[in-house]
Amino acid sequence: MAKADAERLLAEKKKAEEAKKQEENLSEKEALEAAEIEKTLTEAISNGDALFKAGKLEGARDEYNKAIRLGAGDDIQEKIAKIDTLLDKQEEERVRAKEAAQAISNGARESDQLAALIDEEAIKQETKPKNRFVSRD
Fold first, then answer.
1. How far apart are CA 135 and CA 137, in angstroms?
2. What's the whole-model pTM score?
3. Could you tell me if 64 and 45 are in contact, meaning their C-beta atoms sit under 8 angstroms apart?
């Protein structure tokens, strides 16, 4: 019986050692994954900052969104909000520029139409018989 107990204790000790080894391996793996996530997060923020400075706002926003998915804080969310505001302003300016170009394009045509109407009216005035009647009041 003592031999059976010794074998059982040895098997339990072996299982405990294997479990401890698996736990250590898991901890190492988790630590490596955490380090990789931190590295990727830092790269995303760095890339976002570089793209922002270069004026590539959409690319910067994409990198910052990646950083948010990796666990970045509120400071990155604030950067995204700033970029969204700048992109909205750019879109408004683009729309205004397009409308201005359209107005200029249409303006010339409208101006030509107005000039033609004035010319027609002038011709009509020239061809109208002049009233030679003078009132004697």
1. 6
2. 0.56
3. yes
If one counts every other C-beta atom within 10 angstroms of the C-beta of residue 66, the result is 18
Provide the b/e sequence for 86-118 (b: ≥16 CB within 10 Å): eeeeeeeeeeeeeeeeeeeeeeeeeeeeeeeee
What's CA 7's distance to the chain center, in Å?
Answer: 65
pLDDT computed for residue 82 by the predictor: 95
68-101 pLDDT, tens digit per residue, is 998 888 999 999 999 999 999 999 988 888 887 7
d(CA 15, CA 3): 18
Using an 8 Å Cβ cutoff, are 47 and 29 in contact?
no
Residue type, 82: K
